[in-house]
Amino acid sequence: MNSKPRPPASCHPERPHWSRGRCKPCTDRDYAVTNRARVNEKKRCWNRANPARRLEIKRKSLYGVDAATIQARLRAQDGMCKICLKAPATDLDHDHATREARSLLCGDCNRGLGLFREDRDRLRRAATYLDLWDSYAERTNGPIPPAIETA
Q1: How far apart, in whole angstroms, are the C-alpha atoms of residue 107 and residue 123?
Q2: Which of the following CATH numbers is that of domain 51-117: 1.10.10.10, 3.30.160.40, 3.40.1800.10, 3.40.630.30?
Q3: Which of 47, 52, 56, 129 is the most buried (most CB within 10 A)?
Q4: Tell me: the pLDDT tens digits for 87-139?
């Protein structure tokens, strides 16, 4: 096998020549630009054929959590949501400020935290509100509860 070194690329002299005088990244970029529809269709096909791998890549790139870590956390939670303890854990919860992965939750609990904007005071007031109405619901024909005071 003849393995002589490649000449330098004209676009980036520190990189080896790949095609038409350009380096590999520039060649790939130009191909992607001129063949956008073909590249997009190929990506769509791969994504449809590999949903689990796509999710794994997304979790690794966004939150730095690999598949082994996810499986370990899922086993530690017995596969159930960390909040409601009733539904299967399917979503990786994360801190929106730091992008740090927290725990695995069911879709409803994960969306619930998001809708409350992860505001602890707001969540506490919601729990107090439910407790207040539950105590009145125990009595039939009880008076309407007073408005909840905000902290």
Answers
A1: 17
A2: 3.40.1800.10
A3: 56
A4: 999 999 999 889 999 999 999 999 999 999 999 999 999 999 888 887 766 66
